[in-house]
Automatic annotation (TrEMBL), chain A:
Matching PROSITE patterns: ABC_TM1 (PS50928)
Keyword vocabulary terms for this entry: Cell membrane, Membrane, Transmembrane, Transmembrane helix, Transport
Alphabetized InterPro entries for the sequence: MetI-like, MetI-like_sf
UniProt xrefs under PANTHER family: INNER MEMBRANE ABC TRANSPORTER PERMEASE PROTEIN YDCU-RELATED, INNER MEMBRANE ABC TRANSPORTER PERMEASE PROTEIN YDCU-RELATED-RELATED
Cross-referenced SUPFAM superfamilies: MetI-like
Official protein name in the record: ABC-type spermidine/putrescine transport system permease subunit I
Family: Belongs to the binding-protein-dependent transport system permease family. CysTW subfamily.
Record keyword Cell membrane present: yes
Lineage, broadest ranks: Bacteria, Pseudomonadati, Pseudomonadota, Gammaproteobacteria, Oceanospirillales
GO cellular component: plasma membrane
Transmembrane segments: 9-32, 58-85, 97-118, 142-171, 198-225, 245-267
Pfam families: BPD_transp_1
Bilayer topology term: Multi-pass membrane protein
TrEMBL record, chain B:
InterPro entries: AAA+_ATPase, ABC_SmlMolc_Importer, ABC_transporter-like_ATP-bd, ABC_transporter-like_CS, Mo/tungstate-bd_C_term_dom, P-loop_NTPase
Keyword vocabulary terms for this entry: ATP-binding, Nucleotide-binding, Transport
Molecular function as annotated in GO: ATP binding; ATP hydrolysis activity
Start and end residues of each ABC transporter domain: 4-234
Transport as UniProt keyword: yes
Name of the molecule in the record: ABC-type Fe3+/spermidine/putrescine transport system ATPase subunit
Pfam families recorded: ABC_tran
Gene3D superfamilies reported for this sequence: P-loop containing nucleotide triphosphate hydrolases
Length: 278, 371
């Protein structure tokens, strides 16, 4: 028995060592460097500096992410509901193909695409001008916070819709039929029957999307207008321009705390639901 | 609750036609069982009634209202599902009251109605429980209460008892029947279990390949099945094809012959169906009376199975295997004599080029009793 356990330990050792060296060590080292001085003593100086320089950017980041997540939730619920509940099957299969496309486009390509699309003399405004709906004087640039939100939503919509429509399709079809023959319309079925049951999946999609948005560098750099900007851009700036790993890591710690706050909120919510049903 | 009238209904999925020209009238307060093997279209018929499957021809009327093309939510026909289809995120009371909430009935009225229904289905104390904590039988009663809450014109039940274990099934079966008598709802119940259909229904429609083979009271269906399919489906699992060779063998009167006697109205090119419970089995094979009112034949015991109140004996008679009920166990290879009284035989004509077991070749059929 003892022998067997030792054997199994040896089997997981290579994977465990890889995780420790390439993931755990860098993570803890960056957290460590965020709260220590060069001589190894604990300090809050880096965090204080990060807040004094970048508190606007931190708020900006939170606002952008929250706004994106809200829009994302509304759009992905709408699209999934259309896919699952619509009686027009051919339209649904077209929609099913279209919404998946952004999954296969990298963030940096998306950002570049949005730049040419949303700029003051970009594709979108040119199309409006050409169709006579606007004069060139009236055009406004969407580059800036709106552009960042549009890009995040456009890119993450595929992912969260994929999860959500999967969860909706997995519901027992008879539950929907039962509501239908009791007189419920499709909208009622969506809000009363389907959404309460796919809420945990929506939570997962939104939490994972938040983490992704917090970590993307290309979008704020290419679509943002400079100040305020997102924390990922600030971190890159601290490292590239000043070699200041301590403040960059302090910012990293803050974004890590924001993400884990969300994850905690989500876990607590889903545990509450589970506790009630079990 | 009103009368349901189905006229020449055709329906299917895509290009596949499932229901062919179904016509059926369910009277007010009547319960009709749709009985048939899997794939015969019985569930499709219910789905077409509820509006879940589009109808390609024919009409569905409830009272004087034509509902053929109405969307499911406007039909006022509710369904009880085999899988219960309760909403797990709601309590028992919320499930039952949902239809009324959709109709914007006042809250007090909903509470009152839910309370009334829960006491009818004997779940009075469980109103605030989550449905996920209930047993199968309780869940199906919640589903029944939910379907009845909005006072539907027609209630349809899709194999409501199939997911329940044997004892609970008997209870719920009894309860549904009692409720149906008490409240008098017009209903259609789908089942593949002939006993369930016999016990619960006022009339039975036996379906085969998307058509109604026979419609009648349970006694009629059981005692005088009109077609070989109905006979076989209603438990007459013993089948003998009466070929000219068999007919001539019996006339020679050989004491070693397989068949000892046959009733007078069984003639060549007919097939005969009978139930194992109607077979009398005796081990004294020398007793020989050429009785023209019974079908009797010789054979050897193949195996016997204990059924509780009796043994089901499989007897090899030439190329036929006949099932017979008997009071005691018999060892294999015991020679036996089987006899079936004429009134228990269901006899049908067959085409001369009959190939064994091919129902498709049957053109005309008559029940033995009607001759």
């Amino acid at each position: 028995m003892q022998n067997k356990t030792t054997h199994s330990l040896w089997l997981v050792a290579p994977a465990a060592i890889m995780v420790a060296i390439f993931f755990l060590y860098p993570l803890f080292f960056s957290l460590y460097s965020a709260v220590t001085l060069e001589d190894g003593s604990l300090t809050l100086a880096h965090l204080t500096k990060a807040f004094s320089l970048y508190s606007n950017d931190i708020l900006f980041t939170i606002a952008i992410v929250l706004a994106s997540v809200v829009v994302l939730a509304i759009l992905s619920i709408t699209i999934s509901a259309m896919i699952v509940l619509s009686p027009f099957k051919s339209l649904v299969s077209l929609l099913g193909l279209l919404y998946r496309l952004p999954l296969f486009i990298p963030f940096i390509v998306t950002a570049q695409m949005m730049r040419t699309f949303l700029a003051k003399n970009g594709l979108m405004n040119n199309a409006f001008v050409a169709s006579g709906m606007m004069t060139p004087m009236d055009t406004i640039s969407f580059l800036g916070w709106t552009g960042i939100i549009i890009t995040f939503v456009w890119k993450q919509l595929a992912f969260s819709t994929l999860l959500l429509s999967g969860a909706m399709a997995a519901l027992d079809q008879n539950q929907i039929r039962a509501a239908q023959n009791l007189g419920a319309s499709r909208v009622r079925i969506l809000f009363h029957i389907m959404l309460p049951q796919v809420f945990p999946t929506l939570g997962v999609a939104l939490v994972l999307s938040t983490v992704t948005m917090m970590s993307v560098l290309s979008v704020p750099l290419m679509i943002g207008t400079g100040t305020p900007t997102m924390m990922s851009a600030d971190m890159a700036f601290r490292v590239n321009s000043y070699g200041d790993y301590n403040v960059a890591n302090a910012l990293g710690l803050v974004s890590y705390l924001i993400c884990s706050g969300l994850a905690w909120f989500y876990l607590r919510q889903s545990l509450k639901d589970k506790g009630a049903t079990a | 609750m009103t009368r349901l009238n189905i006229e020449n209904l055709n329906a299917g999925y895509g290009n596949k036609q499932i229901l062919n020209d179904i016509s059926l009238t369910v009277e007010q307060g009547e319960m009709i069982a749709l009985l048939g093997p899997s794939g015969c279209g019985k569930t499709t018929l219910l789905n077409a009634l509820c509006g879940f499957v589009p109808v390609s021809g024919g009409k569905i009327k409830v009272g004087n209202r034509d509902i053929t093309t109405l969307p499911a939510e406007n039909r006022n026909i509710t369904m009880v599902f085999q899988s219960y289809a309760l909403w797990p995120h709601m309590t028992v009371a919320q499930n039952v009251g949902y239809g009324l909430k959709v109709q914007k009935v006042a809250r007090e009225e909903i509470e009152e109605r839910v309370h009334e229904l829960l006491s009818i289905v004997r779940l009075a104390g469980l109103a605030n429980d989550k449905v996920t904590t209930l047993s199968g039988g309780q869940r199906q009663r919640v589903a029944l209460a939910r379907a009845l809450a909005i006072r539907p014109d027609v209630l349809v039940l899709d194999e409501p008892l199939s997911n329940l274990d044997a004892k609970v099934r008997l209870n719920v079966r009894h309860e549904i029947k009692a409720l149906q008598k008490q409240l008098g709802f017009t209903s259609l119940i789908v089942t593949h279990d002939q006993e369930e259909a016999l016990v619960m229904a006022d009339r039975i429609a036996v379906l085969n390949k998307g058509q109604i083979e026979q419609l009648g009271r349970p006694e009629e269906i059981y005692q005088s099945p009109k077609t070989p399919f109905v006979a076989n489906f209603m438990g007459a699992e013993n089948q003998i094809v009466w070929t000219p060779e068999l007919e001539s063998s019996i006339l020679t009167g050989n004491s070693e012959a397989l068949f000892v006697s046959r009733p007078t109205n069984l003639t060549a090119n007919q097939q005969v169906f009978f139930r194992s419970e109607n077979v009398t089995l005796i081990t004294n094979t020398s007793r020989f009376d050429n009785d023209n009112s019974v079908l009797s034949l010789r054979g050897h015991v193949m195996q016997s199975a204990f059924f509780g109140n009796n043994y089901r004996i499989s007897v090899q008679c030439g190329e036929h295997i006949i099932q017979a009920d008997h009071t005691c166990d018999l060892p294999a290879n015991t020679p036996v004599l089987l006899s079936v009284p004429a009134h228990a035989l269901h006899v049908y004509d067959i085409e001369t080029s009959f190939k064994s077991n091919a129902y498709a070749t049957i053109q005309t059929s008559t029940s033995f009793q009607t001759i």
